[in-house]
Amino acid sequence: MEAWQEFQVAGNEWWRIAALFGCVLGGLLIGALVRWWLQRVSSGSRLRSRRIMRTVVFAVARPAMFFFFVTGLQAGLRFLRLSEGVQGLANDTVRVLFTISVAYLLYALVDVLEQVLKRAADGTKTRLDDMMVPMVRKSARVTVVVLALVQIAQILSDKPITSILAGLGVGGLAVALAAQDTLKNFFGSLLIFADKPFEMGDRVKFSGYDGPIEEVGFRSTRIRTLEGHLVTIPNAQLANAPIENIGKRPHIRRVMKIGVTYDTPPEKVDRALEIVGEVLDRHEGMDPSLPPRIYFDDFGAFSLDIIVFYWYHPADYWKYKTFSGEVNRELLRRFNEEGIEFAFPTQTLYLAGDENRPLGVDTGPGG
């Protein structure tokens, strides 16, 4: 027993070392139990319909184990006999870990802010605020990380925060010069929010890409193409280039050419124009201010061309395609009933040895 009492590590009896490990282990166990309990509460039936409260409880549960570990470590260090220098290092370590635990908690609570903003955004008609939610979330998290790093720098350097901020200002200038493209993209995102060329979910065309806007960030904007590919475009390029916002069109216009054969008599051509007008008369997607336009347009290379313009409201692409298919089927049926033949590319060949259609060759004067 006396041997155990005389056993020391760095001037500390064994029971002091055991007390340190006991406090750390106790902190970990308490943290694990608290996290388990909070996660169980957040997934319980009482909070199932209260999304924000459930997010708060789950966010607090995430750093719980680390927080209690730091608390146990701080309590355990009180049992040790340390030299002045080591004691200062231990205190700084505990302060740094405590700062990290608080930052971890605030970082997790950003999810609560996101839920609150999403609920507010869902209550508005515009989708511009939906674009702001992810940017606010990222800004808040970056702010938490930067403040935590500044606090840690102050703890380790023992300098006032004003001196640290001044040093960051000088270093920030150097970083800004080295990250000009990143700054361009950041200001590009601000221009996008100020100019509002599109909103979340709008289908746009840009530089050969076609698809809905999926996310707008500080550096880039993401477009989900119609093929399913995710394209990331720097905001600096997006802010300085023409963007075709298909999602904002009030209608879809169709230009349709119908070719009938050259042996179609004039009265049949007139009847074809009447049939197209009857099919499109007061159709389901018609706006009274934009009625269909139908013309005998041109004498084509192998057909008599009828050109048709009509507009479909609202600009629902799939309903428009369904309606266009119905129009095509009805025109085919009506033209067949009237004996009006559709033209297709044809060529007439004359053979030199054909007695019915002799091919004369003009050899010119004196030939």
Automatic annotation (TrEMBL):
Name assigned to this protein: MscS family inner membrane protein YnaI
UniProt record similarity statement: Belongs to the MscS (TC 1.A.23) family.
Main localization (coarse): membrane
Gene Ontology CC annotation, any one: plasma membrane
GO MF annotations in UniProt: mechanosensitive monoatomic ion channel activity
Domain Mechanosensitive ion channel MscS C-terminal, residue spans: 256-342
Organism placement in taxonomy: Bacteria, Pseudomonadati, Kiritimatiellota, Kiritimatiellia, Kiritimatiellales
Protein location: Cell membrane
Topological relation to the membrane, as annotated: Multi-pass membrane protein
Residue span(s) of domain Mechanosensitive ion channel MscS: 181-246
Keywords assigned: Cell membrane, Membrane, Transmembrane, Transmembrane helix
Positions of transmembrane segments: 14-34, 55-76, 96-117, 161-179
Top-level taxon in the UniProt lineage: Bacteria
